[in-house]
Amino acid sequence: MSGLHIGALDDAAWGSPWRRRRVGEKVACSMGLVLTALLAPTWPGTLLVAVAAIALIVGAARIRPRVLLTAMSAPIVFLILGAISVLFSVGTAPADAWWHAAFLSVGPTSVAQAARLFAHGLSGTLAVMVLATTTPMVDLLTWLRRFRVPDPLLEIASLTYRLLFVLAETTANVLAAQRCRLGDNPVGRWNGLSRRWHNTAAAVGAIGLRAWDRSSRLTEGLAHRGFETSLVTLPVPRVASPRLITATVVVLAAIWSISLVVAR
Q: What per-residue confidence (pLDDT) applies to 3?
């Protein structure tokens, strides 16, 4: 499923109307929203950041809502798990606890902390999606070269990103082959638990070997093409967008102003 998330984000970034905008402007917009989501008061700061990020992604950048939902599904699961871990307090139950059992308890303080964690995390993730859904990885790495980031670090990041697609494609092919052979058919005791474990182990082994083989062939192909230092791509000509910069400043200023007024 993570491969589908990566592919959806990559396709959306390549096809986004914001592809022609300067990477630095999009980074400033996204990181400004991220910092606001982390530092602004939970209410209404995180809500305003989330609304602004969704408006930029779905409205200004014209990314399909389904793509955003697909990309957010995995982060939301991690945010929920993190909030649940904060929801339960460990130790002596406080006097105002709503529920307690043994050394675990749930009270208004832990619930408030879990809600704040989830709100900040969700709004911050949506802010990051402003950049992820509008900027391909190639453009981001090309932009980082301007700041004299060492080429080996950029090449490692680029190859790792490319190999994610290799791993996702290999996984999809192996699982499809198992389904065609009825490998997912629950036969045997405990609803086929033993067979499921066996098929999972076989799939992991096959995926690892095939991914290793394809990555080795990729390395050999690069070596045969004379790759020694870096894979430099031609930069896409971009024009500055004063409207985006102005809108970013206005939105951030409005969020902070409303948040500070309400928090008083």
A: 47
